[in-house]
Design brief:
By secondary structure, this protein is mainly α. Helices cover 56% and strands 0% of the residues. The protein is built from 5 helices and no strands. The structure holds heme C. Heme C is lined by residues 28, 31-33, 35-37, 44-46, 51, 64-65, 68-69, 73-78, 80-83, 85, 88, 96-97, 100.
């Protein structure tokens, strides 16, 4: 119960955060990435925090991540694969990846 009470102000803070974070977060909900990814906890796929940690400082990573989101990915993080998302525009994928890389 305590956890929920603490989480509320944090959520409010995230919603009030600068525009690209907000867009990225909204797109991630819209495209149902949330079905397999959580911010701070491994789900079917890795958490956004773990992704951000793994690729911080790697200038080539965002393009490679975008490619994996678009075409699908397997074997990078473990056994379950990520299905391809061919119908999502490159711009939207970029916005979501910017958001993921900024997750703390
Ligand atoms: C059906 C489950 C599923 C959905 C839906 C899904 N993912 Fe994933 N995602 C995964 C799994 C599993 C992995 C790890 C794949 C691997 O090990 O190669 C992954 C990996 C990733 C990675 C890391 C890629 C890398 O280069 O290491 C990113 C970024 C990512 N997903 C973003 C997204 C975004 C954005 C969406 C929504 C458009 C999304 N995922 C939807 C399951 C999913």
């Amino acid at each position: 119960m305590k956890k929920i009470l603490f989480a509320l102000p944090l959520t409010t803070l995230l919603i009030a955060a600068p525009s690209f974070a907000q867009d990225g977060e909204a797109l991630i909900k819209q495209y149902k990435c949330t079905a397999c990814h959580k911010i701070d906890q491994k789900s079917v796929g890795p958490s956004y925090q773990d992704i951000a940690k793994k690729y911080t400082g790697d200038a080539a990573a965002p393009a490679q991540m975008a490619e994996r989101v678009k075409k699908g990915s397997r074997g990078v993080w473990g056994s379950p694969p990520m299905p391809p998302h061919q119908n999502i525009s490159d711009d939207d994928i970029k916005t979501m990846i910017n958001y993921i890389m900024g997750v703390k």
